[in-house]
Amino acid sequence: MSLKESSEYMEPIISVKDVERVFGKGDRKVQVLSGIDMTIPPHSLTALKGRSGSGKTTLLNLIAGLDKPTKGEIYFRNSLINDYTEKQSSEFRRTNIGIIFQSFGLVPLMTVEENIEFGLRISGVSKEDWKDRIRDSIELVGLTKRAKHRPYELSGGEQQRVAIARAIAPKPSLILADEPTAELDSKMAFHIINAFKELTSNKKTTIIMTTHDPGILEILDHVYTLEDGQIENETQEIF
Ligand SMILES: Nc1ncnc2c1ncn2[C@@H]1O[C@H](COP(=O)(O)OP(=O)(O)OP(=O)(O)O)[C@@H](O)[C@H]1O
């Protein structure tokens, strides 16, 4: 591998530098994050863990460009995303990021297949690839038999898996997942995390997720623990 290739490989996909997020003013001021530094290498599987209210979702929202830090910088590769206009920010998400939220954001009148197709359409994936991408992503989350069903006909865990399939299908360079296994039983959670691990090991994507689940932590490449708005300790550093 040439020096150029190897240095490109090591370039972080996300760099968070001295980030702070304060909500509200005066008496209602809440300092949720402060002095956050994080470097996410490409093709890694990283988790943010911490107590409820520790700021995990807030940090994911900042990385997605859905919110802006009150201080500090967030880079996607070499691009400073906290300076993006709203238009640049939504274009950035549309073309680079798959988002799995706690509220799944599925379109109620669309079947599982149609929801995933919708995701492919807005990500700009060429139409000739849709059929394979839809089939493969549905298979990956174990919902082949439910492909023609609508979200209201599915359980919470099944809806969560549709949201995962929809985020994966466009093959984004970064997936941000807020508690993607929260609704799943331990066997299915393990299956999904293993699928995440395979997608990152095969250099198909990079994943940053939040979790409460101690059972899955050992599969991950890197775990950041948030406590009192700061990164407490770093574990499982393998890079
Ligand atoms: N828009 C807002 N205005 C004021 N406070 C907010 C706002 N958004 C989040 N917070 C506060 O920031 C803190 C962190 O919230 P966040 O959702 O990031 O936590 P979390 O670690 O993801 O929690 P959980 O595990 O319960 O999902 C909470 O105390 C919350 O009340």
From TrEMBL:
InterPro entries: AAA+_ATPase (IPR003593), ABC_transporter-like_ATP-bd (IPR003439), ABC_transporter-like_CS (IPR017871), ABC_transpr_LolD-like (IPR015854), MacB-like_ATP-bd (IPR017911), P-loop_NTPase (IPR027417). Pfam families: ABC_tran. CDD domains: ABC_MJ0796_LolCDE_FtsE (cd03255). Gene3D superfamilies: P-loop containing nucleotide triphosphate hydrolases (3.40.50.300). SMART domains: AAA. GO terms for molecular function: ATP binding; ATP hydrolysis activity; transmembrane transporter activity. GO terms for cellular component: membrane protein complex; plasma membrane. Keywords: ATP-binding, Nucleotide-binding, Transport. Residues 14-238 form the ABC transporter domain. Belongs to the ABC transporter superfamily. This is ATP-binding cassette domain-containing protein. The lineage of its organism: Bacteria, Bacillati, Bacillota, Bacilli, Bacillales.
